Amino acid sequence: MTDFLRTTARVALLAAGLVAGAAGSTFAQLGVGRPVARQIVDGIIVKVDNQIVLRSDVEFAYLQEQARAEGKALPPDLKCQILQGIVLNKLLLAKAETDSVVVEDSRVRDELDRRMNYFIQQIGSEKKLEEYYNKPVRQLKEELRTQVREQLITQKMQDEISGKVTVTPREVRQFFGRMPKDSLPYYSTEVEIGQIVKLAKTNSKAKQETMAKLNDIRARIVGGEDFATLAKQYSEDPGSAKEGGYLGFFKRKELVPEYEAAALRLEPGGISPVVESQFGFHVIQLIERKGDSYSTRHILLKPAAATADVSEAGQELAKLRNRILGDSISFAKAAKDFSDDKFTGASGGLLQNRQDGGSFLPLDKLDPAIFFTIDTMKVGSITPPLPYRTDDGKDAVRIIWLKSNTPPHQANLKDDYQKIAQAALNEKKNKALDDWFLRNRGSVFIEVDPEYTGCKLLDAVN
Asked: What CA–CA distance (Å, rounded) separates 70 from 363?
């Protein structure tokens, strides 16, 4: 790990949540494609008020760093760096609890969905993900829920401490000047890619046909046929269909409003009328209420977009492309204003590098469909509308913009200013977090196992 990369390590750990609550988490293993073997003698090594740090938290994060390093030497104090980052996370969580800092259930749900879609994309399909872990998606989500909530709370606390920190061009140059020339990172070919997505709007006829089919299924259930059996046969929600439509327990506001409202109007065992949500049409059975939670099963049918619907979306996108090419609107503004992919739309259409949050993507890590699309494109060009299917299975079209293509090179200010500026900003944010840690470490109870006193956890986080 170079000094340049080391300056980003703690912020990356905090933002990505790679170590907070990682022990025992199924999804902590997904970041490297396949689980890392974890034969670790476990135990509590640090207590921060009601928060604990396990030995396996540190060891597992260290194994992940080893896997990413691909044989390169790691810093001798990396385990201490990792532990320091975890302790800072735990202090942030402890202070959030005393300060009553919370995140909305809807935000947790959206982040769960985003990560799940990413994991499914990485492994190939929802079915492969479930087969790999031998668990339905709903169970994997439940195992991840607490960890995601803690990570979002930690991020919220971090943003309050260092969110307004900025760097000047002079500070960026000074930061780069301090980097040892023989340790500058070497970058392979990287590209910046933008997309604008339009979903195919399902026409009323397709919706009516789907509702009629689902009403027939509902009538069979009311007539005495088994809900679970029909869910396995007809439901188009692959995560729950194999479980007979069972979704498990959710708290209020964790499911889409239309679904929740219909479910909570029922008595246990009751069957809802056909309900429409953003995912399609549902028939719902309420199974049980337990305090503020409830469990249901459902059958989901999705209206299929006709060829004409996809063609209409393509025509709309083609007009937008012509406006961009005619310089009447920039690609970034068009993405923000018109793209149906709100995640990339918010960043001006640019796809995000999941490793560092930036817009530069290693060419050899691209999705094959995008790789072969841009392979012969010139920088600045935009494809015609291309049909594709979104991560959640919706028919759509998109245009793809090749913003930049940077050949392999050693880091320099001209080509890599954005990355270097981000590293300089991370260093400055780390300093703000260090200062906060020093001011607040005495406000909570912290106990460190003697084995780790050499890490000097109660000093500034180095």
From this structure: 18
